[in-house]
Every structure is written in C-alpha cells, then in structure tokens.
C-alpha cells in the first residue's frame, strides 16, 4: 500500500515537471518586458468618444505582425 502511494506521487510529480518543461520550451510564456510594453500601450489609449481621438488611437495601433501572431496561434492549436 505504501509503495503504491509513493509510485502515484512520483508519477504526479513527473507529469507536473513534463508540463512545466513543455510550457517553458514552447515559448508560451510572455517575457515581462513585452508584457509591460503591451500593457502600457493599452493604458495610453484615450477614453474619449470623440471620432478624431478614436481615429488617432486606431492609427497608432500596430497591426503589422497580426498575421504572424494568428499563424502562431493556429500552429500551437494543431
């Protein structure tokens, strides 16, 4: 009975370690600098309902690598 418990705990530990290593190696985690930069961009968007301000926010939005990001997401889902 004791051996079965030890084997079960070791199996769970191995599974957790494999998931952790896979997460790190697959670059799923976002670097803190990238995360902070993106959050800063969101925080700088105006809260105004004025059409000119909304247009300025849209023009300032960088959508250049959007296709690349979508392709990455599709690849990860496959």
Q: What does this 3D model show about the protein?
A:
The protein has 78 residues and is mostly helical. It folds into 2 domains: 1-29; 31-78, no CATH class. 74% of the residues lie in helices and 0% in strands. It has 4 helices and no strands. The longest helix has 24 residues, at 2-25.
Concise overview:
This protein has four helices and no strands. It has 78 residues and is mostly helical. It has two domains: 29 residues; 48 residues, no CATH class.
Q: Specify the number of helices.
A: 4
**Series of secondary-structure elements, N-terminal to C-terminal:** HHHH
Main beta sheet, described? none
Low-confidence stretches: none
Tell me the quaternary state. single chain
Structural class: mainly alpha
Number of strands: 0
Alpha-carbon Rg, integer: 22 Å
Structurally, how many domains make up the residues?
2
* Mean pLDDT figure: 79
Helix content percent band: over 70%
Q: Please tell me what the overall shape is.
A: elongated
Beta-strand content: under 5%
Instruction: Compute the separation of the termini in Å.
Output: 41 Å
Helices and strands in order, then pairings?
Layout: H1 2-25, H2 32-43, H3 51-60, H4 66-77
Keywords:
single chain, 78 residues, mainly alpha, 2 domains, 74% helix, elongated
């Amino acid at each position: 009975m004791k051996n079965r418990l030890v084997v079960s705990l070791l199996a769970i530990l191995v599974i957790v370690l494999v998931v952790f290593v896979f997460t790190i190696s697959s670059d799923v985690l976002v670097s803190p600098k990238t995360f902070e930069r993106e959050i800063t961009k969101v925080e700088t968007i105006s809260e105004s309902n004025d059409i000119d301000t909304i247009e300025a926010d849209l023009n300032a939005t960088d959508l250049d690598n959007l296709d690349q990001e979508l392709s990455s997401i599709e690849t990860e889902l496959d």
